[in-house]
């Protein structure tokens, strides 16, 4: 009886999906004037709808049937949940690859939400979605270029490599050379993206809402809303080009002390459109390729420090943040103006790629987020609560919010030890974090529902940066927390100076600054002592 009821639920879900999404598909087709595109939609969308419906029904049925009658908190249900998570993640992975486009973008988002979704989903999506995206044929690439610029690649460029050097969810990149001899990277949008984007969004929206209906704890409707808001901007490559220029301009104006150390490729506007972006070709080591970085004479810990500082400046001072800093979007090269030191070392320059996804933080959000990170670094429990509440976590979930940001339980977050936030990378640490994520999953879902979407994107950015840092130094570095503490504290002081005009207020700010310098100096001394202790332990 139970099995029959569950199967009926899955069957009804499939029928409902096909009916509702079919209306969305029809609407998309109705607005298409190109007969060839209409025919393509008529043949492709029903197949995609069927895949969506079957996958959603299969996942719902698997969870309901496999967990039926198992006692919450038992060893058996933990084991079964792990197995169902794995099966469901693989089903979702297959669906993303077969449908492509927005589905791969969704999979990439899931893969970057470490400990916010079941770890099985994160691991499977992260291993596959960044490096195994579908590739458009050379004929399709030529079709896009001719439609956008009026000529084929062989006319527009003196050289154009038909094989892409990289392919992502929205586009792929080809190496070319302009007629004046400049080596460039040409980013070409996949042809199917604009064909099916509207219908795809409707189907993904329905699936997430339907799963939430059956499993209220799985509330990731915010993720679909975020993709719906950000995807049109990411599909307009002119916006991406402008973002890259604005990013560098912010560093020159607001963070001149590190402006030379951060770079973005020059855009060739005469060879760029909304679906085609021609940029300066960049040579460099990928951010997680430690051996290549070392061969360039650059120390990985210096790169980790630079990445932390660059993104801290963006989040806490610029309020204009690159929100997709995974390893494929970050390169490192020696600073062009630098020379090798006596020890043969070079200073690093960080190259930011893929500027499609940026978020603006208003003054209130940026200031409170900076104040929150300052409080986290200095283990100030009162300020952590105050600023978490201001950002929307609430009086009851502020400790959980702090734990998600730092990947630490509350007792470690407020530990006064200078290295209280450092994650050593041990299996026991990771197991503890996964246990907390599983134990507090309903509360995590509620927290994600409450927080503003811009803060949710900061969480995703934070996870990306943590993964990059761990690949560079094998464990979270105290030095990077020192940098975050310094930049966030400076941002808070600058915000106070903007808001207060009386002499007494200026005096208070000056005293705050002196206190900050003292605390940072003490933190630096502690850092040196910890490094010395580690060096001595290696010697033994």
How many strands, which pairing sense, and closed or not: the largest β-sheet? 5 strands, antiparallel
**Class derived from helix and strand content:** alpha+beta
Radius of gyration: 25 Å
Approximate helicity band: 55-70%
Q: Quote the beta fraction.
A: 5-15%
The multimeric state of the shown protein is single chain
Shape: globular
Count of individual beta strands: 11
Tell me the domain tally: 3
Calculate the mean pLDDT score and round it: 81
Poorly predicted ranges (pLDDT <50, ≥5 residues)?
Answer: 1-31
Tell me what the structure shows.
Keywords: Signal. Residues 129-387 form the ABC1 atypical kinase-like domain. It comes from Juglans regia (English walnut). Residues 1-25 form the signal peptide. Belongs to the protein kinase superfamily. ADCK protein kinase family. This protein is α+β, with helices and mostly antiparallel strands and 540 residues long. It folds into three domains: 26-131 and 198-233, no CATH class; 135-191 and 236-281, 2-Layer Sandwich (Phosphorylase Kinase, domain 1), CATH 3.30.200; 361-538, no CATH class. The protein contains 21 helices and eleven strands. The protein has helices spanning 2-30, 35-66, 75-99, 102-111, 119-129, 138-149, 153-156, 192-214, 221-234, 237-254, 290-295, 300-318, 363-377, 381-390, 398-406, 410-413, 427-439, 441-450, 453-473, 478-499, 503-539; strands at 159-160, 166-167, 171-177, 183-189, 262-263, 276-280, 285-286, 320-322, 330-334, 348-352, 358-360. The strands form three sheets. Strands 1, 2, 3, 4 and 6 form a five-stranded antiparallel sheet that branches. Helix 1 (2-30) packs antiparallel against helix 8 and helix 2 packs parallel to helix 8. The protein is globular. The model is unreliable at 1-31 (pLDDT under 50).
